[in-house]
Amino acid sequence: MSRPFPPPPFRIGDLVVDPPLLQAPMAGFTNAAFRQMVREYGGVGLIATEMVNARGFAWMDEHVAEHPERLWGVADEARPLAVQIWDNDPATMSKVGRRLVEEYQVSVVDINFGCPVRQVTEKAHSGSYLLRTPGRMFEIISRLVKACAPTPVTAKIRLGCSPETINCNEVARVVEEAGAAALTVHGRTAKDMFRGHADWDRISEIKSHLKQIPLIGNGDLDSAQKVVDAFKRYDVDGVMIARACLGRPWLFAQAAAALRGEPVPADPSLAQQRDCMLHHYELVKQRFGEEKGTVLMRKYACCYAQGKYGARHFRSHVANVSSADEFYRVVEEHFPMKSKEEMKAEMA
């Protein structure tokens, strides 16, 4: 299917998402430090937090007068900003949603109906587990929409719980009828986890089952060209970039340029990427302190090295650092400074 290009901005309620590029909520990764890195490079229309356990939020609020660590930075950072929450109890979800709107003035409250992790699904009967009970989804969404008004509520789903039980078209209709302002679809089932390839044909098909709310596609978008192709080939209003941006916060700026028809900026040099990672580390340390910040930064450092020559060697060293001195030493001695292409050229 040929689509209008360049894709126009779209609305989530009264919020204009421009460019139509969204950063996915990712547990353990999209904290305030990472969100700041993405903002500094630009090109993203809507940024999201990590997913927040609504029941945990409510318990902390009632017992210890604190809020979840995953809401670090939310009150003070730039808008627009979406906060994603999860649980299976409509009352708890609506209560937490209202707090996010009143106390944090968030731009969007997003509901996670897509997480495939066992701790969320089988143990908590939340996330993608709820795809098997569209009626329960309707109740959660409709209660949250009323509690959060006029702030828009959105939902993120998968195609279904398994390849044998794909029900995304039915669920999409339920999401819209319940009052959600937008729907994001990851093109895999929960059983697939992150294996195989996202089914963008299935995502695109959902559009015909929606009357007016925007459809956002998600899955396997790891380059500016793939973002362009998604808009040209599939019936979506926006796209969401997830894992591919973790070590490449500049990916949104590249995709935005491509959508404008401008030359795509080259990746930063490896030295610049190393400096970007070190800047990220400083932001993490400012919030968590040296010891905890260094441990937290290990996984981000591995993302920055991914796909480079010597990445495995670097990961084996950075995985054990526990102090700033160790981190800086490992980066100085082992961070990959040549791409795989450069190494192939040298060896040819």
From TrEMBL:
Pfam families cross-referenced by the UniProt entry: Dus (PF01207)
UniProt-listed PANTHER family: TRNA-DIHYDROURIDINE(47) SYNTHASE [NAD(P)(+)]-LIKE
Similarity-based family: Belongs to the dus family.
SUPFAM superfamilies named in the record: FMN-linked oxidoreductases (SSF51395)
Keywords: Flavoprotein, FMN, NADP, Nucleotide-binding, Oxidoreductase, RNA-binding, tRNA processing, tRNA-binding
Protein name listed in UniProt: tRNA-dihydrouridine synthase
Database matches in NCBIfam families: nifR3_yhdG (TIGR00737)
Its biological purpose: Catalyzes the synthesis of 5,6-dihydrouridine (D), a modified base found in the D-loop of most tRNAs, via the reduction of the C5-C6 double bond in target uridines.
Species for this entry: Roseiconus nitratireducens
Signal peptide per UniProt: none
E.C. number: 1.3.1.-
Keyword NADP: yes
